[in-house]
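We emphasize that the prediction below concerns an isolated chain of 114 residues; any contacts that depend on oligomerization or on bound cofactors are therefore not represented. The input was used exactly as deposited, without trimming of termini.
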Amino acid sequence: VQLVESGGGVVQAGGSLTLACAASGSTNEINTMSWYRQAPGKQRESVASITTGDGSTAYKDAVKGRFTISRDFTKKTVHLQMNSLKPEDTATYYCYADTSPSTWGQGIQVTVSS
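Result of the prediction step, given as a token string:
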């Protein structure tokens, strides 16, 4: 499985961005896809996840109500819609798939200016 992220960039506080993660290869092996983020000097943390089966979602408390994760089976893509962005959302965002071994995307930068 390969994961390719897109959609990052620079946005002002209060703005919106949508990240996309396109999966290719043996995607039938994937049960859950997630977005993680890592800010400079901090540990990588899970932001949101979605199951490929029933579409169940889970979110980090700090992003609940602002971020929405969704999946597009046809395009084998997972999106992360991020609204009401805050400077503390600034980080490198990574797409993750629970394959064995696990698969990570290359990461994409999101910068929120105050």
